[in-house]
Design brief:
alpha/beta; Rossmann fold; 10 helices; about 280 residues; globular; 9 strands; three-stranded antiparallel β-sheet; binds pantoate
Length: about 280
């Protein structure tokens, strides 16, 4: 596996692969890899001869007081895991590589509408940071396919919107969330949970899944189901940020006839902020 931190190194490797007509699948990450990321790498492999993974803790997607400084940085372990997973290249850009003009002069890519609610409302500026860094990574890696996890449901919709709107020449693949046996979605931030919180944490997925079952049973009072979901999370010990039932394709309010729904939630548990969702076809 090649490890690169510069634009030049990456460019020459990509040129070589392109010269041999090889396609490129790309998995952007912030490192501290877990089985969910490795599943993204495995799925990326199904779409292209070459797989590039990036590890970059992007400062522009963290708000003031968030965990940018303390975000777990585990590059040695990540490198080992990616070698075993069979990635072809690991791109570990420096801040200068990603933002050559400095953060104050950096171009911002911003998707309106979709980013205003849910995680966008709880974390102002977060999605501008995500789309700005992902657009930069797409421009450097020029992949044919990029792979994202379904756990960050709003993020993958925002990125799909950006790709469509800017006519970026790549396909986005979304991979189902990988879970612990008890249902907890794998996340780098699960390491912030203490033992008691870790026991409560699967309640987030249980509550989402219960709402999904009510929808499949024909219940359509979305507001009542959202209220029950929020109360369920509170009773379990979470501090919920949102619990919402929306149209799966665009997060708009569903009418009673909508047949593809997503139930999505974010909740705090001690130092951790957990997000999760279930998609329901009714
Ligand atoms: O999902 C993530 O890990 C990040 O938001 C991403 C897509 C790597 C951008 O920094």
């Amino acid at each position: 596996m090649e490890i690169l931190d510069s634009r030049e190194g990456l460019k020459s490797l990509l040129r070589d692969w392109r010269h041999h007509d090889e396609h490129i699948a790309f998995v952007p990450t912030m490192g501290n890899l877990h089985k969910g990321h490795l599943e993204l790498v495995r799925r990326a492999r199904e779409h292209a001869e070459r797989v590039v993974v990036s590890v970059y803790v992007n400062p522009t997607q963290f708000g003031p007081g968030e965990d940018y400084e303390t975000y777990p940085r585990t590059l040695e372990r990540d490198t080992r895991l990616l070698r075993t997973a069979g990635a072809d290249a690991l791109f570990v850009p420096t801040d200068e590589t990603m933002y050559p003009m400095g953060l104050a002069l950096a171009t911002v890519v911003s998707v309106p509408g979709l980013t205003e609610n849910f995680c966008g409302a709880s974390r102002p500026g977060h999605f501008d940071g995500v789309t700005s860094v992902v657009a930069r990574l797409f421009s450097l890696v020029a992949p044919d396919v990029a792979v994202f996890g379904q756990k960050d449901y709003q993020q993958q919709l925002v990125i799909r919107h950006m790709v469509r709107d800017l006519s970026l020449p790549l396909r986005i693949v979304t991979v189902p969330t990988v879970r612990e046996k008890d249902g907890l979605a794998l996340s780098s931030r699960n390491s912030y949970l203490d033992e008691a919180e870790r026991n409560i944490a699967p309640g987030l997925h249980r509550t989402l899944a219960a709402t999904g079952r009510h929808l499949q049973d024909g219940k359509r009072d979305y507001q009542a189901l959202e209220r029950i979901g929020l109360e369920g999370l509170e009773a379990a010990g979470f501090v919920p940020e949102y619990f919402a039932i929306r149209r799966a394709e665009n997060l708009e309010m569903p009418d009673r006839d909508c047949d593809e729904l997503v139930v999505l939630a974010a909740a705090r548990l001690g130092k951790a902020r957990l997000i999760d969702n279930v998609v329901v076809t009714v």
